[in-house]
Fold:
Amino acid sequence: MGEATAPARDRPGEVAGGQAVPVLEVRHLRKAYPLREGERLAIEDVTFEVARGELVCVVGPSGAGKTTLLRCLSGLMAPTSGEARFEGEPIRSVPQGVGVVFQDYSRSLFPWFTVEKNLELALKVRSMGKEARGERIAQVLAAVGLPEVGRRYPWQLSGGMQQRVAIARALSYQPELLFMDEPFASVDAQTRFELEDLVLRIQGAMPDVTVVFVTHDVDESVYLADRVVALSRPPATVEAIVEIDLPKPRDQIETRADPRFAALRGEVLELVTGRTRRA
Structure:
């Protein structure tokens, strides 16, 4: 990419005068799947923004179109109407500054390649030199707590370790925006807690990385997020956006024991289930 930039911006993420541009803007996004007769509407009208450095969780009822929404936002799928913008530019395909971590880590890693080779593939596409690739791979494996696994194969690792490698691969090309699609749904509860804390540590160490995290777990969304976007029953719209005003750093025991956590959990759960708490 060349060094020329649009004259209206001082740098990516800003307009003239220093006014912040959201890293991700979603405007009236709609997605319908064509059928023989008519269409099936998955997403009806979704609008929200994500600022630089935020961690925003997207939750909703089963079948609410969370994964469809993420695929439209990341450029993996075209919306039927409306649009998503990355740093002010319409997303037509996966932008260079965007990374994606999927739920099924076993399919996202090539079992016949070592961990190093799996990570190296993403960097070769970006024409990074051999020495620089080695340094970056060492950095991201250390960041996810796996500095010694580079020469091992994915099938030699536990599920939690494989998902850490998938996260490391997404971080290896230093994305500005990271999408995560229910990445911890296939691991046990203890490993899930460890991976949640890993995401928070990464966010703390890389404050310019913006994260959009799709999950079906209400507790997870409240524990991780700066804000939670709650989707309605399908076809999806934004039911509400909940500010998560819990202190940081967060702790699996102390944070979850905080009465404010319980109140926020109840608020988000009401939105997702459509049920009101008893007085």
